[in-house]
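FIELD: query
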Amino acid sequence: MSLRLRRDGRQGILPFVIVQAKRDDVTARAGLPLVVETMRALGLDELAANELPQQKRQRGFAPAQKLEALVTLIAAGGDRVEDVRVLAEDRGLEKLLGAPFPSPDALLDIVGQFHDPKGYEDRPPEKKAWVPPESESLRALDAVNRELVARGAEPGVTQATIDHDGTIIEAHKRDAKVAYEGTRGFQPLVAVWAEQQLVVADEFRDGNVAGGEDPLTSVKRAFANLPPWVVARRFRADSAAYYTPLLKYLVSEKIGFAISADMSKELRACCTAVEPERWALLDTREREQVDLAEVEFTPGDWPRDAKPLRYIALRFTPRQQELFESKGVSYHAIVSNRHDLEDAAEIVRWHRQKAGTIEHVHRVLKDELGAGVLPSARFGANAAWFRINALTFNVLTVLKRCALPERFRDARPKRLRYELFTLAGELAVHQSQLSVRVPVGDQRLQEIVDARGRLLAMYDARRRAKRRRAPASYRLGVGGRPRGEAARQASAAVGRPESAQVGP
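FIELD: result
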């Protein structure tokens, strides 16, 4: 390609020119394979091959390969499927990964396969705000994420606090609905395992479906997606989850919770009737003072024979009056069934901690990954795109917590890209060994090498565990491939197709 230059030959202010280099021995993303190695260490490729519906024509890229490419694309900073063209131009990266990237059309095709128009056939004609049932493919993608959460969580952790909230994604699609704040778009619900920083469930919704419209389904899925060894379960949410069927479910399942309560007339009357001496100081802020007091309150639809819930009233008193707009005393309330925390202030502070988890996840999904840019006019395709972004968030969480140094534990994706993923590298082959030279210091190079070693140890441990579970006839198959009925039994035992080759 010939470039047009000025007459004096200068291309820019600094004394150099940029020319095109069609080479496969250099890469601008030598650290990005860490994302792929994290997926392989978790067995995400095998999970996708087993769970996702297979394409009718057995040619081209398999669904598992396309899913791996989408996660890699989003982790690299792409927020549109067309951005895969940029990764495909990096021949050195494709050489490190051992395979080319699928085309944008191939990725759009698999995202579109998650949409099922039959799900809209049962829509009640009188309901404007409605959540369609998920397609089989979307449920399969949820199953992949459920197993990823189990494999990626720290071993031995038996407690899970689920933080649950919705977020608005602005979109100007033809069928996008107007949300409560006037923004046109979508309003998915997200459930996060706070201690592990893992997204355990999501429910994609139209913008006009409020968060308080049957949140029970989403919450049930979140707790069902937790690993079976989690025995202590907690739940935190805002007033959108103040939904009587959900409160009854949490109480019946013995799940400790703290939820912002709707300030009804009856509850407000209880708050204003509290004697002055019963209010206890909680916070003194720059512009207001926050006091709390427990109040006796029972909603009208709460069973009379049920154990009363704890209602904690919060009073916000301005410390000084505004010049033009006077703001009086306001009240909020939190409802909880946690009697293990005697001090009401502890419950309030514990409830506030959700802002540091769920809102952080929303911000990362929309602003630093690709969930803020929806790819299609079809609802199911957008739901799949959002779930794949949640899957990418979990893959990066496992990479940070299981492989990278402690200083990356709370790093956001832009920090990972700046310091790890976008490393220039020069590829070389010596004695059949592919290597990549990167211009980094000794410490950062050792951190990358150690991270790869930890991921390799996870990968080897998972394969050893799989071989121990497999029948002997499967392990001793000729050429690494089992045959006949023993092959089918072995495939069922380890969850792999009969045609899958077994490693050493």
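FIELD: remark
The chain has two domains: 26-113+398-469, 153-368.
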